[in-house]
Structure prediction request, 97 residues.
Amino acid sequence: MSTAKSILDTIEYEELDSHKFLLFKLNDELYATPLLAVKQVVENQSVKTIPNTAPYFLGLINYRGQIMGLVDLKKRFQMPERPEIKKTFLIFESESG
Prediction:
């Protein structure tokens, strides 16, 4: 298993019955997402905030020429912030691209 320290406290890779998952922790809760749904894991980038959006919507980033919206999962799930941890983004592939 490989790990990286970030706002997603721990990112791990796990294979269960030929299904692959990306495991990550938000605070001390463990979450998993299908690995094929994750396009990229990237470090903190400059975020363009958008006024009058939900508090958990961080804004937009330009990632390799594509504009992508960011959702802060800790804010979305109403979890306390941990400012000592640097932010990392998971980029998911959506059906629309």
User: Anything to note?
Assistant: The CA atoms of residues 27 and 78 lie 11 Å apart. The chain has one helix and seven strands. The helical segments are 73-76.
